[in-house]
Design a protein that fits this description.
The chain is 9% helix and 25% strand. The protein is mostly beta strands. The protein has a single domain, classed as N-terminal domain of TfIIb (Single Sheet), CATH 2.20.25. Strand 3 and strand 4 form a beta hairpin. The N and C termini lie far apart (52 Å).
């Protein structure tokens, strides 16, 4: 008899020290962490960089525009 197990996806936490070191690649300004949306927000660039599997994706082409 095979033992089956349901794996629930878990949200990975982002290291707070890493967040303190990261800056917006476009403007070099500080970022705000939005835990609900799992994003790093650059008010200066008006972009929100996604965090996927606990890894910040710091590419402008992957960022969401805050004008949306």
């Amino acid at each position: 008899m095979a033992d089956t197990e349901t794996v629930q996806p878990t949200e990975r936490k982002v290291d707070r020290k890493l967040l303190e070191l990261l800056v917006c690649p476009m403007t070099k300004t500080t970022l705000e962490y939005d835990p609900k949306r799992q994003e790093l927000v650059s008010r200066a660039a008006k972009l929100a960089y996604p965090i996927r599997n606990g890894i910040p994706i710091m590419l402008a082409e992957e960022a969401r525009s805050l004008d949306d």
